[in-house]
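Design job #97: recover the sequence.
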């Protein structure tokens, strides 16, 4: 069997184009190799311009994020890389297919462009500010070989060249800590240009930069009140000459046909105001103003580390409903995030209005959960005989239902013919993990988690996508990070977000509740330390290291992580108990009052001290991985001290806890805070008893939910964990499924059994935090988990139960695809496991000693004992 190597990847880029690293690390997968083969060397061949190819051979078995093997890249430089590998037999594989990469603008001095925008006077406090268009004409000489547009904005932008849209990204440049980091994107526009006259232009929208942001009315102009485009178009000719057309005061500006645009409120577009040919050469600029130049420190311009937001799917309506009031409502059958595209023909001046919501109540669109978000788009027709196609540019909505008013003609026929389509938008992450089992409801739950993640990974990891909020709550991604990493390659996106977190972190180590911070919003939500939320600084980098094998994220975030733990150490004092100060605790415990979701059954300071111990241990582990001996010793000692103080304060001599609640026991067990086996057994038994006493219904909030099934299954109570998973009464995961949920809700009972919406003000029907159980489905139900960072060692440890007859999971690891399928058939458990080349497996089956597996596919059969069969029958 020949050894086959996949094209190498650079850092965490799906498309290594316009990258910001001058020495990007390389990874590759060995797709095929003989049994027993192991890499012991690799050879990288790099072609750079006209110079002879360079070749580097390294005696190493490493194949994930190995060091760049050549001189650093220069700005704009392109290179081609291929990899060959050698095994112990001394034979080299054929080289991989090459990967082409291109660097972006790596240094501040590369930039000559200045942000430019309109000059007319606007009311800075108004939502009615009209975005602008910007344009510039230029000439292309003979011999053009390459053209690049490096683009960003204060606000959001879409660029056009010669009447054609540049790129397929949306909501660019996204949301970062704008004063310190503003993303730019690199676009190849070579094929869009012609010799002679050409034109470039940009649409602009308020976005997060200056649009209304934040709840309780929100703020405007949080990062600035200008709306500006930053563009640098570079033309390279065959003779080596480079010409730069950069944004400056030679550009022209005019009002766009977008009358208003906002993230929360939607977009209004008047097609009568469109300017035909405005981004083509020869357009009449009469009435256009000279653009005004603004300031941007080029040192703040950064290339992206993850993929942009894109449209990834189109969804057709499944029904057209008529409400009691006569309203016409499209049902798309799925709660999703994106926008509606329409194709329409009608008279000039008619306005079609699209109002969105996640749910109906009494047959009508129910918008109370949106709070202050208008969530409405409007299109005024130009009356073109050939018809008109439109989709909003600079907004997104969370919705399943769309009320359509003003539609000319038969809405039912239009929906059936594809004239109204929902377009799904999110960060275009690579899907890497899949799960399925014999229970259709559990499969629907898993699908709901996937849809919820897609809708809340819109440039940053948000809490919800529909109401006047949509911010990067740190607690939500802290608890959901493992599940996110089981489903998608989030490494590049979350690495970039963590850089913003480190910037926003206060000098004393305080981690904000959400990142980026909304400037001035801390008047309502003060930036003060809070457990579980602030612990994202330690636990998310560690999760990314475990799942993707990237020690670089530990190195980059170690200062932030230890800053957080050092702060909590000062707050706790010598007693090592964090038992003072404001805490959100086990947020949204189902027993909490609707308007006081922090009033949970578990002592919030118990939660805080448990997280203190867990984060101290995480920093010790980070230090160990980075070879920081002194720091490892210091934080290991601190973690031990906090764990001892926790046990003394919160765990009784008999193993019961001061907070006799599911979350308390789940934390103590999952974070290994109970020092002796006897008390651990008692605590686990009490947790199982609490679950049974609750009728197997959920009694945990944001903190306890990701841990409770693991705490049970890891301590001898697998059946109880399954009973919790499969319960259908409220509150439970499958209650939401039975109520028709297609995403995971913010509250367990966001919709009440009678079909009405919970009266609380936080009733999002698309929150991923409570869907963190998906990671347990992959690791424990199916039995697929990393046993060493980056899946270098893969643990296959299925724990069948709950009456399931089969389960399967697969994951595209840094080494290749791994998978497990198990089936219970006639008293036998049949397991099939696949290990990719470069990794090894550990097969841990019930009642058996663990077995090491080399790469390849492996099948094992074991007989289930009488007790196991009886337990399965009872479920």
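Job complete. Output follows.
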């Amino acid at each position: 069997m020949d050894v086959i190597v996949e094209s190498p990847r650079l850092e965490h880029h799906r498309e290594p184009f316009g990258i910001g690293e001058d020495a990007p690390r390389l990874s590759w997968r060995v797709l095929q190799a003989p049994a027993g083969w192991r890499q012991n060397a690799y050879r990288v061949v790099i072609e750079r311009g006209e110079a002879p190819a360079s070749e580097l051979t390294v005696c190493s078995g490493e194949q994930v994020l190995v060091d760049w093997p050549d001189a650093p890249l220069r700005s704009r430089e392109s290179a081609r890389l291929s990899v060959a590998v050698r095994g112990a037999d001394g034979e080299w594989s054929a080289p991989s297919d090459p990967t082409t990469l291109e660097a972006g603008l790596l240094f501040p001095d590369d930039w000559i462009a200045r942000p430019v925008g309109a000059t007319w006077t606007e009311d800075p406090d108004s939502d009615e500010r009209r975005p602008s268009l910007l344009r510039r004409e230029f000439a292309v000489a003979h011999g053009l070989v390459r053209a690049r547009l490096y683009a960003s904005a204060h606000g959001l932008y879409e660029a056009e060249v010669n009447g054609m849209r540049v790129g397929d990204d949306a909501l660019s440049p996204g949301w970062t800590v704008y004063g310190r980091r503003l993303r730019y994107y690199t676009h190849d526009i070579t094929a869009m240009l012609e010799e002679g006259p050409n034109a470039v232009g940009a649409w602009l929208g308020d976005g997060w930069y200056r649009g209304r942001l934040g709840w309780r009315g929100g703020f405007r102009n949080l990062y600035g009140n200008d709306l500006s485009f930053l563009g640098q178009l570079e033309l390279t000719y065959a003779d080596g000459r480079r010409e730069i057309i950069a944004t400056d005061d030679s550009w022209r500006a005019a009002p766009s046909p977008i009358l208003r645009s906002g993230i929360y409120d939607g977009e209004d577009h008047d097609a009568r105001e469109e300017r035909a040919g405005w981004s083509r050469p020869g357009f009449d600029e009469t009435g256009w103003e000279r653009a005004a130049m603004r300031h941007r420190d080029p040192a703040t311009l950064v290339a992206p580390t993850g993929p942009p937001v894109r449209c990834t799917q189109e969804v057709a309506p499944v029904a057209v409903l008529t409400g009691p009031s006569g309203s016409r409502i499209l049902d798309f059958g799925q709660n999703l995030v994106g926008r509606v595209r329409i194709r329409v023909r009608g008279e000039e001046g008619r306005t079609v209005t699209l109002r969105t919501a996640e749910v109906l109540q009494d047959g009508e669109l129910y918008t109370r959960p949106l709070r202050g978000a208008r969530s409405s788009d409007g299109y005024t027709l130009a009356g073109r005989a050939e018809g008109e196609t439109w989709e909003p540019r600079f907004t997104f909505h969370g919705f399943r239902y769309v009320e359509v008013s003003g539609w000319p003609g038969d809405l039912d026929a239009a929906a059936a013919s594809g004239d109204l389509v929902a377009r799904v938008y999110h960060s275009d992450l690579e899907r890497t993990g899949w799960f399925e089992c014999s229970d259709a409801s559990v499969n629907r739950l898993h699908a709901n988690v996937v849809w919820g993640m897609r809708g809340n990974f819109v440039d940053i990891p948000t809490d919800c996508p529909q109401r006047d909020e949509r911010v990067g709550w740190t607690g939500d991604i802290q608890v959901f990070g493992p599940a996110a990493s089981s489903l998608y390659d989030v490494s590049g996106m979350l690495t970039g977000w963590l850089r913003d977190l480190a910037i926003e972190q206060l000098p004393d180590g305080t981690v904000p509740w959400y990142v980026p911070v909304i400037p001035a919003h801390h008047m309502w939500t003060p930036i003060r330390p809070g457990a579980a939320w602030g612990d994202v600084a330690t636990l998310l980098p560690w999760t990314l290291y475990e799942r993707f094998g990237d020690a670089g994220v530990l190195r980059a975030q170690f200062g932030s992580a230890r800053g957080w733990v050092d702060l909590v150490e000062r707050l706790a004092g010598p007693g090592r108990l964090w038992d003072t100060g404001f805490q959100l605790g086990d947020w949204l415990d189902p027993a909490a009052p609707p308007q006081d979701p922090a009033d949970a059954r578990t002592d919030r300071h118990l939660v805080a001290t448990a997280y203190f111990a867990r984060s101290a241990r995480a920093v010790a582990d980070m230090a160990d991985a980075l070879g920081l001996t002194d720091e490892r010793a210091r934080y290991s000692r601190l973690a031990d001290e906090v764990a001892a103080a926790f046990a003394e304060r919160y765990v009784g001599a008999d193993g019961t806890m001061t907070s006799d609640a599911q979350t308390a026991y789940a934390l103590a067990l999952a974070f290994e805070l109970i020092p002796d086996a006897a008390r651990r057994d008692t605590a686990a038994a009490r947790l199982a008893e609490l679950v049974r006493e609750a009728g197997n219904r959920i009694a945990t909030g944001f903190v306890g939910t990701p841990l409770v099934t693991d705490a049970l299954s890891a301590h001898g109570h697998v059946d109880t964990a399954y009973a919790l998973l499969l319960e259908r009464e409220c509150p439970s995961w499958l209650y939401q499924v039975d109520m028709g949920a297609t995403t995971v809700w913010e509250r367990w009972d966001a919709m009440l059994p009678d079909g009405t919406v919970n009266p609380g003000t936080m009733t999002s029907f698309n929150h991923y935090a409570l869907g963190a159980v998906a990671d347990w489905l992959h690791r424990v139900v199916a039995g697929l988990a990393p046993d060493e960072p980056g899946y270098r060692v893969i643990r296959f440890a299925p724990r069948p139960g709950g009456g399931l007859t089969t389960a399967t999971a697969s994951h595209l690891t840094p080494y290749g695809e791994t998978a497990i399928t198990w089936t219970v058939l006639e008293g036998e458990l049949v397991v099939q496991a696949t290990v990719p080349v470069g990794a090894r497996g550990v097969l841990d089956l019930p009642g058996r000693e663990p077995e090491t597996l080399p790469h390849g596919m492996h099948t094992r059969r074991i007989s289930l004992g009488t007790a196991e069969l009886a337990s399965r029958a009872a479920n």
